[in-house]
Amino acid sequence: MQFSANLGFLWTDLALPDAIRAAAAAGFDAVECHWPYEYAPEAIAAALAETGLAMLGLNTHRGQPGENGLSAIPGREAEARAEIDRAIAYARAIGCKAVHVMAGIAQGDAAEVVFLANLDYACKTAPELTILIEPLNNRDAPGYFLSHSDQAMRLIGRAGHPNLKLMFDCYHLQIMDGDLTRRLQRMMPVIGHVQFASVPDRGTPDHGELDHRHICKVLRDLGWVRPVGAEYKPVGPTGDSLGWLPELRAI
Ligand SMILES: O=C(O)[C@@H](O)C(=O)CO
Ligand SMILES: [Mg+2]
User: Fold this and answer.
1) Which residues belong to any copy of the Xylose isomerase-like TIM barrel domain (predicted)?
2) Considering the entire predicted model, what is its pTM?
């Protein structure tokens, strides 16, 4: 298996270009991030070129403090699309192939209509990119519009864009939906990226209620060859948290 270091959680003590270098030195196959916007894209592109790593994904901006994205919020369409444009431009500038469009805190039919319209805009604006949507668990992200994988599947079906995919984060989906083996098998055709962390503490993928060796074997048997996102919160220095990597890499 191959792994991508999620630099939203790993090496957060370092500036993003140095975090990319640290991930390369630790043996990761790729990197991904959340919100890189405080860094000039040239600095990120240079670190990626220097290390040979790809940046697999980045997120649209969350909005004001306390917000968690704008794309499903009625009345905020102009801001949401400006953030989609900004994320797409940034992704293009650094050669990143996926943008996670964050829905925001909203509920109901009007939110769904707005989210679908904004996803349509993102998919048409950047047909060469993968546009990701990610169900988040409602303990960490109360009120977030998208919290179940079946809900995401319905939205992807209704949107009808081949570049709209599911971010299958095993951590969130174990909390919200469970049955991850069958869910991975069933949803594989529309999965654009996979992430994981232990449940319930969002720590290293070597303890807790999820067996990550099993998850990796399921992914391997389904023909998944892309790096899986290590999106966990290390307790101490990131470099001291990588004991899981050799065993899962050997699967
Ligand atoms: O799981 C997460 O929290 C992230 O993948 C994300 O993009 C939203 O914060
Ligand atoms: Mg995630």
Assistant:
1) 20-247
2) 0.97
Q: Which atom in ligand 1 lies closest to the alpha carbon of residue 100?
A: 7
Q: Known catalytic residue: 231?
A: yes
Kindly state if the Cβ of 183 falls inside 6 Å of ligand 1: no
Reported as a single tens digit per residue, the pLDDT across 32-91 is 999 999 999 999 999 999 999 999 999 999 999 999 999 999 999 999 999 999 999 999
Per-residue pLDDT of 164-219, as tens digits, reads 999 999 999 999 999 999 999 999 999 999 999 999 999 999 999 999 999 999 99
CA-CA-CA-CA torsion sign (7, 13, 19, 24): negative
Question: Is 42 one of the annotated active-site residues of the chain?
Answer: no
> Where do the structural domains in the chain lie, given as residue ranges?
3-249
Q: What is the 3-state secondary structure (H, E, C) of the chain?
A: CCEEEECCCCCCCCCHHHHHHHHHHCCCCEEECCCCCCCCHHHHHHHHHHHCCCECCEECCCCCCCCCECCCCCCCHHHHHHHHHHHHHHHHHHCCCEEECCECECCCHHHHHHHHHHHHHHHHHCCCCEEEECCCCCCCCCCECCCCHHHHHHHHHHHCCCCEEEEEEHHHHHHHCCCHHHHHHHHHHHEEEEEECCCCCCCCCCCCCCCHHHHHHHHHHCCCCCCEEECCCCCCCHHHHCCCHHHHHCC
What is the pLDDT at residue 233? 98
